[in-house]
Amino acid sequence: MPSPFYDPFHGAGRAVNYGPNKVVWYVELGDGKVATCVQELVSPIFEDNQRELNDSAGKRWGDGKIAARIPLGFYFDKLAPAKRAGDERYIKKILNDSDYRKFRTFGGDM
Question: How far apart are CA 100 and CA 1, in angstroms?
């Protein structure tokens, strides 16, 4: 079976960390600059999240409950800027949005 990952640097870089669900690529750009690319399969995350969401049915919220598991790329692209800005309302809106339901591991609204 072919790998689900591809070389984003078209032969110029190399994989520096390779696992079954994630690959980290690295390339030197010159002048001391580097670029990295993280490729992550999200289906295993979503499958685990769905199992945990199903198991949470009828349970109550409490300290230490994990509300969601989010792929790193999405977190840094969409949620980290809001977190830095202190915009908890935006984060809750995203995590309660049906379009992003696959991130949730515990039922109910945040």
Answer: 30
Question: What string of pLDDT tens digits covers the 110 residues of the chain?
Answer: 567 888 999 999 999 998 888 899 999 999 999 999 999 898 999 999 999 999 988 888 877 788 999 988 889 989 999 999 999 999 999 999 999 999 999 988 88
What are the structural domain ranges in the chain?
A: 1-41, 43-103
Question: Are the beta carbons of 69 and 46 closer than 8 angstroms?
Answer: no
Per the confidence metrics, is the pTM higher than 0.85?
A: no
Q: How far apart are CA 72 and CA 87, in angstroms?
A: 19
In the block, tokens 């499958």 appear at: 47
Closest CA relative to residue 54, chosen from 104, 100, 110: 104
How far is the CA of 36 from the CAs of 6, 11, 104, in angstroms? Answer: 13, 14, 28
